[in-house]
Automatic annotation (TrEMBL):
GO terms for cellular component: nucleus
Protein known as: Protein BCCIP homolog
InterPro entries assigned: BCP1_family
Family: Belongs to the BCP1 family.
Pfam families in alphabetical order: BCCIP
Basic and acidic residues bias locations: 1-14
Annotated region (Disordered), positions in chain: 1-38
């Protein structure tokens, strides 16, 4: 029996110019990671579903966008996300009525457009890929954070009494921020249900890794790949930035005549603020 649960349907489109027909021009619409970056009109219906085995490769690819070349077993991390399929959602394209998403000729791996979930990296600390995530967070803090943030990271990861949730909010380029609102609303409901069943999803702290970019014109200006995450910074107990230029396939992207350098912003929150964070990201989306 499929464990799929349709959570939200949303039609999204990007602004278009005259459609190009040549193969070379079509190729130019995608970056080195396979993300669509062109300006042709794309219109589709999306829905949030519980992760399934067929989503493995799509989830792994999205995790690679976030973690890049970090020493984390992304396949194992994707398996954890699928194993806790009662928590979190993948974004899939709605199928036509006559289309069977269980078709043996299509495993669905290329159809994952986003993933929103949270993983308990304290409860699962003995699993190899979670050990790698914890080691990565410690190393990033030690190399990039100020003393206060560094001490906080080491504190929350060294005390098993502190259950730490790793929030993953990742999607392909050009999927609008509005889709995050129903995904996080669904995640809230799922966490509430899990807590009523006394499952380990009560977090003292949350770690949230955001994809950001800095412009060459103004290093203090930070652009968020996921716009809804921008207002969350003010609520963080601590945060620090990591330059990932050396890990990214493309170190810079054009931006209004300048360039953008890829970074990661690591945010640490009190776990009790999760609902407030969801409210803030919803307000950000509504105000755009």
């Amino acid at each position: 029996m499929s464990n799929k649960k349709n959570k939200e349907v949303q039609k999204e489109s990007s602004e278009s110019e005259e459609e190009q027909d040549s193969g070379s021009e079509r190729d130019s619409d995608f970056d080195s990671d396979g993300n669509f970056v062109g300006d042709k009109e794309l219109q589709a219906d999306f829905e949030g579903r519980n992760p399934e085995d067929c989503d493995f490769h799509g989830i792994k690819q999205l995790l690679r966008q976030l973690f890049l070349k970090s020493n984390v077993d992304l396949g194992a991390l994707a398996q954890i996300i699928i194993s806790q399929n009662y928590i979190g959602s993948v974004v899939k394209q709605c199928l036509d009525d006559g289309q069977d998403d269980d078709d043996d000729d299509d495993d669905g791996s290329d159809g994952v457009f986003g993933i929103t979930t949270v993983i308990n990296i304290t409860k699962r600390k003995e699993e190899h890929c979670i050990k790698q995530v914890r080691q990565l967070l410690t190393a990033l803090a030690n190399d990039n954070a100020d003393d206060r943030a560094k001490a906080l990271v080491n504190k929350i990861l060294s005390d098993d009494a502190n259950h730490v949730g790793l929030v993953i909010n990742e999607r392909i380029l050009n999927i609008p921020a509005a889709i995050s609102v129903p995904l996080f609303a669904s995640l809230q409901n799922e966490l509430d249900k899990a807590l009523k069943k006394k499952m380990p999803y009560s977090f003292q702290y949350l770690v949230w890794i955001c994809k950001t970019y800095k412009t060459s014109d103004d290093e203090s200006e930070v652009l968020f790949a996921n716009q809804e995450e921008k207002p969350l910074v003010e609520e963080a107990l601590a945060s620090f930035d990591v330059d990932v230029t050396e890990q990214a396939e493309l170190s810079q992207w054009d931006y209004d005549g300048g360039a953008m350098t890829p970074c990661r912003k690591v945010l640490i929150f009190e776990g009790s603020k999760f609902n407030q964070l969801v409210r803030l990201l919803k307000e950000e989306v509504e105000n755009v």
